[in-house]
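Moderator note: this is an archived Q&A kept for reference. The question asked for a predicted structure of one protein chain; the sequence and the answer are reproduced below.
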Amino acid sequence: MADKTLLMVGTRKGLWIGTSDAAREEWEFTGPHFDMEEVYSCLVDARGDVPRLLAGASSSWLGPQVWRSDDLGASWQETPNGAVRFPEDTGATVERVWQLVPGAEPGVVYAGTEPAAVWRSTDGGETFALERALWDHPHREEWGAGFGGQAFHTLLPHPTDPQSVTAALSSGGVYQTDDGGASWEARNHGIRAEFLPEGQQYPEFGQCVHKITRHPSRPERLYLQNHGGVYRSDDEGRIWKSIGDGLPATFGFPIVVHPHEPDTIFVFPINGGDKRYPPDAKARVWRSRDAGETWEELGDGLPDGFYVAVMRDAMCADDHDRTGFYFGARNGAVWASADEGESWRQVVADLPDVMVVRAAAI
């Protein structure tokens, strides 16, 4: 049984690492690691004998790099000439690493980058190879770019089938491979692109998907937070159903599934348009225990007068038996719940703009 909790907080000006015991009441933080570098992605990979931390950091001088630590952040190693680099014939340069996730096989890690590309590592994140079929996809030249840039920000390797990966980008939509990356198909049927003209709002691709999640015990079920909409798919993205009724707003960025309950999901709704903060400026997490059929508001310990957003990767769960949930905001504060969202407490404040949080029992 794990007796410690590790929390990684990536910001626009570095990475902070928090540690606590299993009760998750008192926290100690170190940082900044990668001072003044943008950290849009990080990963606690606990599959080996020793947990490996990965961080996608981007220096304004040296560009992006995937750093790794096998001593919980006490020291960091980099890959010479960069772990993620486009082949010369593409004429492209990596600007940011937006996503780092473990694959189904030992040592496999996937990365998503800006410009929009997916990469695969077989050595625990030390080096990565471009998923060339997706980069050469005929849709790519028509993919748009959201306000955050054009990037694959969500990667969901199938938990038991190493040939299957679901990927998403803004503004391009959802793509799926079932043959180990040899081919990719768009899977956006039922997702509305509200920013397009009437009669054109359900295209094959081009939706502004903000985040997708799934539960390892039900990999065919996906949950999706869209640019104006929350959805569920029960067939791995072939058909999507709206589940946003009952929420105060259907715009938002993160969506998180409970690691032990495949029907329980969490979102953080915010206003669309120009007011990118929660309705009534109240920080609230919303939870569904029935796969999105109904929703309940969770706000015990959360502040009012909250005029910032929570970004797509800035909300997560740990894997303790009694699951903890976390979110970080653009005001540099991070909140945690040790009772599955029933109550919340601020665990760190006054950091730079939070872009990603990742937690694990170790």
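Archived answer notes: Residues 132-135 form the longest helix (4 residues).
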